[in-house]
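Please, structure for the following, as tokens.
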Amino acid sequence: QGAPVTDDPRDQGDGFHESPGDWAKRAAMGAYDDAWQLIFAIDRLSEKAEWDKIRAALKAYPGDVPFHEFSAQAFRRSAAAGQRDILETMTAKNFALPAEDGAELIEQLARRHLPQAARAIGFLLETGHSGGRALASVAAHGTPDMMDALKNQGCDVRDGAAFPASLRNGNTATMQYLSNKG
């Protein structure tokens, strides 16, 4: 648990405040204004699927991309649209999706956004997010093509939870697929 939030804007837990002089230095440089402008902009642009404008905004922004509801939403929309390079850029600028959010995102991408999101799934797996939840969900309710897409992006389809999930839900197509994969 962090320090309590107070009325002092330097205590607002935005991830930037590192020392007593840090807030003033960053505020003078416009760090807070620029960060807010960026996360609002990429959120709005992702709603409109204006991927090139997001790329330009991220390229022009000199600092780290803070984790916030709006930046996370832009990340999710970019992933759903298969914009792996945007995910890579945001991650390179220290945007970090929490582990549970990453596992949930992989599941959503696998269930609703294949094939366009396949490379985004691969990136999330490469950066350490778990695909187990997606495997179990697709095994239970998905298709062999969806399982194959997960396998091709790096999920281990021989994961112990996948076959029982397909069996419990009567998904014979994924049971057969998993059986054929060992």
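DSSP finds eleven helices and no strands in the chain. Residues 110 and 150 are 7 Å apart (CA to CA).
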